Amino acid sequence: MADEVLTERRGRVLVITLNRPDSRNAINSALAQQLVEAIEILDSDPSLTAGVLAGAGGGFCSGMDLKAFAAEGPPKRFTPFIENGSAKPLIAALEGYAVAGGFEIALVCDLLVAARGTRLGIPEVKVGLFAAAGGLLRLQRHVPYGVAMEMCLTGDLITAERAHDYGLVSHLTEPGQALETALSLAERIAANAPLAVAATKRIIRDSQGLTEQEFWDLQKPLVAPVFKSDDAKEGPRAFSEKRAPAWAGR
């Protein structure tokens, strides 16, 4: 099987690259399977704290490969990633375009870094479909209701600059710089304790719309694994010894 997804370790960060540039990194079964496998590596390896997801060839992802869809059917094993994302922080580095299912993959990520001029959106209604990979849920969490509704109903794309104004894009870069900026952000995250970072991500992500009591119920089972971990002992020890902590991820 061709390497439709590439991975590279950079310290405690895993860089994941969609690698079908001749097909605008469109999603077929092989890419979907290899992306899921890369996310499993990120989440299962205690030496990794965060991931960066990028696209090869100057673009992020153009969505579903319709020719492959007609021949193979929908990608297999992809639904758990689309529904749940990753356990550890994942940053999307967007260049050129992130549209249709490609934009929905970006919305699975926790933070978006985008180069100026990158075009974003879910134009599925223009071809008789709707965005069925979570975009209709996630987009409205990041931009005003009216903006989300207009984007989804018209299928029109917006620029990274406009997305940055709405707060959807965390960092706006010059063209060609999204990956390096995303890496810098990931390294800042990876300087912190892995278990604490993963628990913090989960609490923020899963507490949206909860009552206060539901929030405390969500947080309660996450306290002991973090506060009784080796890293919870290492952090104060390193602070008192005036040195950088050596995180073990346990």
Question: From the 3D coordinates, which CATH architecture of the largest domain would you assign?
Answer: Alpha-Beta Complex
Mean pLDDT over the full residue set: 94
Distance between the termini: 34 Å
Q: Can you summarize the main beta sheet?
A: 6 strands, mixed
CATH superfamily of the largest domain: 2-enoyl-CoA Hydratase, Chain A, domain 1
Going by helix content, strand content and strand pairing, the class is: alpha/beta
Order of helices and strands: EEHEHHEEHEEHHEHEHHHH
Number of domains: 2
- CATH class value of the largest domain: Alpha Beta
Low-confidence stretches: none
Instruction: Give me the CATH fold name of the largest domain.
Output: 2-enoyl-CoA Hydratase, Chain A, domain 1
**Shape from CA axes?**
globular
User: Percentage of helical residues?
Assistant: 40-55%
| Physical arrangement of strands within the biggest beta sheet | 1-2-3-4-6-9
Rg is 19 Å
Number of helices: 11
- As a percent range, the share of strand residues is 15-25%
Tell how many strands the DSSP assignment holds: 9
Features of the shown structure:
2-enoyl-CoA Hydratase, Chain A, domain 1, Lyase 2-enoyl-coa Hydratase, Chain  A, domain 2, three-stranded mixed beta sheet, single chain, 46% helix, alpha/beta, globular, six-stranded mixed beta sheet, 250 residues
